[in-house]
Design brief:
The chain is mainly alpha-helical. 73% of the residues lie in helices and 0% in strands. Helix 1 runs antiparallel to helix 4 and helix 2 runs parallel beside helix 4. 7% of the residues are buried.
Amino acid sequence: MRIGAMIKELLGEVRESTLDEAGRRRLHQIYERAITALRESLSEELQQELSTLTIPLDGTPSQSEIRIAQAQLVGWLEGLFHGSQAALWSQQMQARAQMEEMMRRRGLPAGPDGTEGRGPGQYL
């Protein structure tokens, strides 16, 4: 997530400024380091997907090439994060449904949030 935030911030900076040759070379280096860092932390399947989306930047890329490359990378990262969030949400809902089913089989009343209901007692 940190890499994604860094790339998104860089993209915003690139959009707002005109870069000279040295600036474009520096952004190219940062882009390559970000791609390398991502590949080291991804599964083989996601590494292959990333390879198909990233464009090779040779020499000193133009400002347009840098913008396109960064936009592609940020878009891919956002899709990856949204997919991860959806998978986590799905797992939570599945676990909740399993818990409710176990409680139903045991004959326990379910509380308003799907957990075991407890009547009034001595403790708050």
